[in-house]
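Structure tokens please, single chain.
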Amino acid sequence: MGKLAEVMNQAVKVMGEREGKYLTFTLAGEEYGIGILKIKEIIGMMPITFVPQTPNFVKGVVNLRGKVIPVMDLRLRFGMDAMDYTDRTCIIVVEITGDAGNIMIGIVVDTVSEVLNIKGEDIEDTPAFGTKLDTDYILGMAKTDGGVKILLDIDRVLGTDEISLLEKAA
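Here you go.
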């Protein structure tokens, strides 16, 4: 019984770590969520200054109350088709952990939906897709009202090289 109890305690711990409030948003008709503690603010689209020699998903930088913040388009980061920005397109300013400490990054999303309180038992691990897909950036899959929301580990959406690049862009 000792080994089983240990495995159960580990499972409860993991469920508890993922449980909490998530800001949900859409990209190409799919629902995603980011832990609310990573969100600094949500702003409407604003002029973005292009920075040369950056990957296509890096849109540039914005001046947010005197602070220069790099902005990336999450659609392009995930290999989705680009979309014209609308009046519902938003920039979610998140704080991620990089090698040089915490940095603020803006991520462009199609629309912001709502804040949901998601219970640990409603979050499942990312399924194995049978191939060597890199799904480390997915925290889990939240089951809500017959649908699924993909919960992102925003610290892992970018690799360390990309974070360094964004730090330099700012």
